Amino acid sequence: MRYLMLGVLLICGCTQQPQEGPPRYQVSGEVLLNGKPVPAGTVQFEPDATLGNKGPMAIAEIHDGRYETEYGKGIVGGPQKIVVEAFDGQGEPGTSLTNGRPLPGGPFRMKADIPRENGTFDISVKS
Fold first, then answer.
1. DSSP state of 51
2. Distance from C-alpha of 95 to C-alpha of 44, rounded to nearest angstrom
């Protein structure tokens, strides 16, 4: 039994894949629209290729004016195109409007240069 458990541990340890692609960083922060917290929605980070930045996109959900990227699925850092999809948060579970109705003027777009490290980045957009 002891050798079986040792074999399982060795197999599991040998099959871990190294992370592919550029390093990704966890980012969290506040999302404001016209100075007020966005009730629900998403934030999309896309490396700005026009400024020489490349890598995978990252998407985070907004809840009560805050977002946080998932571990291992964060941003690559550097120049980013940011898109905020903002909703009123008055949706009904099980329907196509789970986040509620879109807030007027969206989606909201901005650009920013985000440090290549884990940290916070607050977003403020206007309609």
1. G
2. 23
Phi-psi region of 21 (alpha: psi -120 to 50; beta: other; left: phi over 0): left
pTM over 0.85: no
DSSP structural state of residue 49:
G
From start to end of 21-107, where are the E strands?
27-33, 36-37, 40-47, 58-63, 66-68, 78-87
pLDDT tens-place string over residues 83-121: 999 999 998 878 778 899 999 999 999 999 999 999 999
Query: Could you tell me how far CA 31 lies from the centroid of its own chain?
Result: 12
| CA angle (97, 103, 104) in 5-degree steps | 130
Query: Which residue shows structure tokens 């940011």?
Result: 82
Closest by Cα among 87, 68, 81 to 26? 68
Residue type, 103: L
Please give the Cα distance from 127 to 100 (Å, whole number): 18
Assess contact for 114 and 39: CB atoms under 8 A.
no
